[in-house]
Design goal:
Low-confidence stretches: 5-13, 37-45, 388-423
Shape: rod-shaped
Number of strands: 2
Order of helices and strands: HHHHHHHEEHHHHHHHHHH
Structural class: mainly alpha
Number of helices: 17
Helix content: 55-70%
Distance between the termini: 126 Å
Strand order of the largest sheet: 1-2
Length: 423
């Protein structure tokens, strides 16, 4: 017996609504089918065997299958089909019953094939023939570096940097770290010298901070990191982020003291310290640090061939730094003069007079003398009290009694004595 049709509280559905419902159902089915086709296409990508060639291994291996697959992979590599050799070695590695010696041979074939493919590739898209996530660590490092180099050739610097960053997130201790650092260094410096824009408003030069910072953090001793430190310091100076610029100049001097960039960075650090000071009555420590760094530069580089122009600039900076130190003490001394703190005037004005006289600042030295003249000389300290066993102590009158009982009258029953007798 047929079940009654469900009752619709709104009455029978209109014909137009029933037609739209059927169409939406067919659209959903078509969408599911399209997704399945795309998924199959994605999983089936990769090089295919030639007609009549041994197929890729699937499932457990039979007797002699390991050697046959290895021979087919070597033959493909010899025929300049390295990506097919990569696919065959990857398929062989998936076998559950692969012997250890067979796995080692497959790993060797895979690494040789990836290296040959990376060397022969003419476009970065070729590396998409094999999924990088399926490769072991050594082969994946070769794959990522080869891809990064091709991306650099195509002027896709950020993509080259991202390829290396993705590799080192998974395998930070891979065996090709110098080569990876080279790719990142080339990417960062290419962006730093690129005068173009992206997304209309942003410059590629500002974008270079990301790969350059990655290089100096992850590969600080790489030979290309010296130029990266110098370029980062310049970028931060352009953005008026002087604290970061000083840090990068200082890191350059720490990790690459013999670099050609170190000579300019050593003089630039104290100059930036002076630039970022807002008021001369604060940050005396920064002024002292800058003075010490400038004096060190002169001691190390004065008189060297080719350093004449830089030496003249450093000498001028040192004079400015010492002038600021003197003015700092004069400002503080005037503050103490307004608040009638003579000891503060003597301390800061005296220090200003000493440094101004040594540096030959005649006018500043005269200002310091005037401040010292207003407060007069330092008071002479009182002489120490004579010892009790000295002749002077013997001639002195005896000291009054200090016992608390002297403040009470003997006949008052312990009551306090008159006010006139109290000490």
């Amino acid at each position: 017996m047929n079940a009654p049709a469900p009752h619709c509280p709104l009455g029978p559905l209109p014909a137009e609504l029933r037609r739209r419902t059927r169409q939406s159902g067919r659209a959903r089915a078509l969408g599911v089918l399209l997704c399945a086709v795309l998924l199959a296409a994605c999983t089936a990508t990769g090089p295919k065997p030639l007609p009549g060639e041994l197929p890729l291994s699937e499932g457990p291996l039979g007797p002699g299958d390991t050697e046959a697959q290895l021979e087919a992979g070597r033959a493909a590599l010899a025929d300049d089909r390295p990506w097919y050799a990569v696919a065959r070695a990857l398929a062989l590695r998936k076998a559950s019953n692969l012997a250890p010696e067979g796995r080692a041979a497959a790993e060797g074939l895979l690494e040789d094939a990836v290296q040959t493919a990376a060397r022969q590739a003419t476009h970065s898209d070729e590396f998409d023939l094999v999924s990088a996530e399926l490769l072991p660590r050594r082969s994946r490092a070769i794959h990522a570096i080869g891809r990064g180099r091709r991306l650099l050739d195509e002027r896709r610097s950020m993509d080259a940097y991202r390829a290396i960053a993705a590799l080192e997130r998974e395998h930070p201790t891979h065996h090709l770290r110098p080569e990876a650092g080279e790719v990142v260094a080339r990417a960062g410096m290419a962006l730093a010298r690129d005068g173009g824009r992206y997304l209309l408003f942003f410059t590629n030069r500002a974008r270079s901070v990301t790969p350059l910072e990655y290089l100096v953090v992850e590969h600080p001793t790489h030979p290309g990191a010296a130029a990266a430190y110098a370029e980062l310091a310049t970028l931060y100076e352009e953005a008026n982020r002087l604290d970061f610029a000083i840090d990068r100049h200082s890191d350059l001097l720490l990790y690459h003291p013999e670099s050609p960039f170190a000579f300019a960075s050593e003089a630039r650090v104290p100059e930036l310290r002076l630039e970022r000071l807002v008021r001369i009555d604060y940050d005396r420590g920064e002024l002292i640090a800058a003075e010490r760094e400038l004096e060190g530069w002169i001691a190390r580089h004065a008189g060297k061939p080719g350093a004449e122009a830089e030496q003249a600039r450093v000498v001028a900076l040192l004079a400015e730094c010492r002038t600021r130190l003197v003015r700092h003490d004069l400002v503080v001394a005037r503050f103490y003069a307004r608040t009638s703190k003579d000891y503060g005037v003597r301390l800061h004005a005296g220090r200003a007079l000493e440094k101004a006289s040594a540096a030959g600042f005649v006018e500043l030295a005269e200002e310091a003398r005037e401040l010292l003249a207003d407060v007069g000389p330092t008071p002479v300290a009182d002489p120490p009290a004579p010892a009790t066993d000295s002749p002077a102590a013997a001639t002195d009158s005896p000291a009054p009694a200090t016992d608390s009982s002297a403040n009470f009258s003997a006949d008052s029953g312990g009551a306090p004595a008159a006010a006139g007798t109290r000490r």
